[in-house]
Amino acid sequence: MDNRTVSTQPQSEASVSSFLSRVFLWMALGLTVSAAGSFWLLAQPGILMTVVKNPVIFFGLAIAELGLVIWLSMAVMRMSAGMATGIFLLYSFLNGITLCPLFLIYTGGSILNTFVITGGTFFFFALYGFTTRKDLTTMGGLFMMGLIGVILASLVNLFVKSTALEWVITFVAIAVFLGLIAYDTQKLKRIHAMGFQSADDEKRIVILGALTLYLDFINLFIQLLKIFGRRRN
User: Fold this and answer.
1) Are 114 and 229 in contact (CB under 8 A)?
2) pLDDT in tens, 42-83
3) CA atoms of 121 and 107, how far apart (whole Å)
4) pLDDT tens string 9-37
5) Is 211:91 a contact under the CB 8 Å cutoff?
6) Could you tell me if residue 2 is inside a domain?
7) What residues pair up with 106 in beta bridges, in sequence order?
8) Selection from 88, 108, 96, 89 nearest residue 40 by Cα
9) Residue 79 maps to a domain
10) SS3 labels along the chain
């Protein structure tokens, strides 16, 4: 995102706060749309069973989500703000559908409790990223390396099926996403300080920032659910 902005004029704290507030509001809207997608699918037991039991459909949806994320991340500055917003909301809805099977694994109460815990934790680390004077750029690189390590270890564990390795991956992933929340928040603040060429460019960055923080939130939630979630009997 850094190379898509240009310096215009110094930005006030109120302006930065307004910018980040819009990012967080769009992120929250994305989470709301995801919840709507999950509850919609839960209300359609026939469709739900088809999605869960048919790996072609499930992984097809997952691949579609990945494609939308890559498309939005790489081409956001070449599309209209409205189109970027539509892609983000479509991705959020599809992600809610693919996350719906979690309701078949864990109790609704434990999912809600974990969501609240995730929200509080997210707020704390986002606030740290916003207020700290420490430059987290170097740490951001380490967090991304950690994320790659988590992904590779998770792929290995698909074959190894080690419970011990699964717990190690979970706690490392939590640390990684906590760091990314702070880093991404500070990065957005730094981007805003550089200024934007136009109001539309700012709107596009708001949506891209919302997607980035949405992904941090969802991945942290999934990892915390492994710890705090109560499985159905």
Assistant:
1) yes
2) 999 999 999 888 889 988 998 999 999 999 999 999 999 999
3) 21
4) 445 677 888 999 999 999 999 999 999 99
5) yes
6) no
7) 231
8) 96
9) yes
10) CHHHCCCCCCCCHHHHHHHHHHHHHHHHHHHHHHHHHHHHHHCCHHHHHHHHHCHHHHHHHHHHHHHHHHHHHHHHHHCCHHHHHHHHHHHHHHHHHHHCCHHHHECHHHHHHHHHHHHHHHHHHHHHHHHCCCCCHHHHHHHHHHHHHHHHHHHHHHHHCCHHHHHHHHHHHHHHHHHHHHHHHHHHHHHHHHCCCCHHHHHHHHHHHHHHHHHHHHHHHHHHHHHHCCECC
- Max distance between CA atoms of the chain, in angstroms, equals 59
Residue 1 domain flag: no
Q: What range does the domain containing 123 cover?
A: 9-228
Find, among 181, 205, 173, 177, the residue nearest to 129 by Cα: 181
Domains in the chain, number = 1
> Does 13 fall in a domain?
yes
What stretch of H or E contains 108? Answer: helix 108-131
Task: State pLDDT tens for residues 120-166.
Answer: 999 999 999 999 999 898 888 899 999 999 999 999 998 988 999 99
Tell me the C-alpha distance between 28 and 6, whole Å.
27
202-217 b/e with 16+ CB inside 10 Å = b? bbbbbbbbbbbbbbbb
